[in-house]
Amino acid sequence: MSTVQQYKCPCCDGAIEFDSGVQKMKCLYCDTEFDVETLRAYDDELKNEQSDDLSWDSAAGGEWQEGEADGLHVYVCNSCGGEIVCDETTAATSCPYCDNPVVLTGQLSGALKPDYVIPFKLDKKAAVAALKKHYSGKRLLPKVFADQNHIEEVKGIYVPVWLFDTDADANIRYKASRTRSWADSNYYYTETSFYSVSRAGTLGFERVPVDGSSKMNDTLMESIEPYDFSEAVDFQTAYLSGYLADKYDVDAAQSVSRANERIKTSTAEAFASTVHGYTSVHPVSTGIRLKNSAAKYALYPVWILNTAWNGQTGKFVGDLPLDKSAYKKWLFGIAGAVSAAVFALSFLIWLL
């Protein structure tokens, strides 16, 4: 027994039947007409669509060789639980994340060795100068925040970062439309044509960064990107001298979802930028499959003082505190000025 191929309208998902009058397939609901061959090709395309496959199978980081970690110690913060790595010359210090004292507990153990490190290029003097420039002119900033003694507490810390490399094979289908309008002496006409637009290709991603510290805000770390990876070097403990390093508490496997999110967003934006000439474009289906995937472990330099500052390029981000007393004075001053303006406007209208 033969079966009849059933089609759905690409525009409204309604039932489609052959209309002998126009010799085309026609939607019973929105009256859109389709050539039979066009509709068959569209149906074949739907059958070949693939779903996302964003799996990773490569581990990052290496094992410490004998004697490599002998000069490294771990400080544990009793307040936020952060584990801060430093060399043996570092005395008792305070946590760069919550500013509470941390105490030495023992040798570094149970962690992967970083593959790379981007050494600090901008020193503490440059960090303090950038901080002063950042808050310059901020009238509502508490005076105590701008105090020189507090500013000097800025700390240089290496933040653990997982770097993901992959190739993304993608197929994305869009529903697009073109609209044209015209008029005659009796009517105004609008014609809308609908299209199924497909894009397929491969994008290569190198070193998609995801920070491996739960104490460092992901959004802030991404805000101070990009880092110049050409200045990265193979990790050596000597680069930690005089600085702190955060011990990762989010491993590579736990960071994959964040990396996939960034890869999917970048892929969608890159493919969408190639679709031109339509009145409207909406993605309908997306299939992204990863291959040649690998992850590496690196340390990125950051100067931190309740905010984040790129220790290589000098990019500064963060929320500044607010002087509530100054804010109230400013707010009442603005409210008074607005009231006066409204009164003047009303008076002017009454005169007119």
What does this structure look like?
With 352 residues, this protein is of the alpha+beta class. It folds into 3 domains: 1-48, no CATH class; 72-171 and 196-321, no CATH class; 325-352. The protein is built from 6 helices and 15 strands. It has helices spanning 36-47, 124-135, 148-151, 218-223, 252-272, 324-351, and strands at residues 16-19, 24-27, 33-34, 72-77, 83-87, 93-94, 101-107, 116-117, 155-183, 188-211, 233-234, 244-246, 280-304, 308-310, 316-317. Strands 4, 5, 6, 7, 8, 9, 10, 11, 12, 13, 14 and 15 form a 12-stranded mixed β-sheet that branches. The chain starts with 15 loop residues before the first strand and ends with a helix. The relative contact order is 0.18. Mean pLDDT is 76; it is low at 336-352.
Topology (SSEs and partners):
Elements: E1 16-19, E2 24-27, E3 33-34, H1 36-47, E4 72-77, E5 83-87, E6 93-94, E7 101-107, E8 116-117, H2 124-135, H3 148-151, E9 155-183, E10 188-211, H4 218-223, E11 233-234, E12 244-246, H5 252-272, E13 280-304, E14 308-310, E15 316-317, H6 324-351
Parallel strand pairs: 8-13, 9-12
Antiparallel strand pairs: 1-2, 2-3, 4-5, 4-7, 5-12, 6-7, 8-11, 9-10, 9-13, 13-14, 14-15
Succession of helices and strands: EEEHEEEEEHHEEHEEHEEEH
How many strands in all? 15
* Overall pLDDT confidence: 76
Task: Give the C-alpha Rg.
Answer: 30 Å
Helix content: 10-25%
Structural class of the secondary elements?
alpha+beta
Strand content: 25-35%
Largest sheet: 12 strands, mixed
List the total number of helices.
6
Shape: elongated
Number of domains: 3
- Would you identify the regions where 5 or more consecutive residues have pLDDT less than 50? 336-352
How far apart, in Å, are the first and last alpha carbons?
86 Å
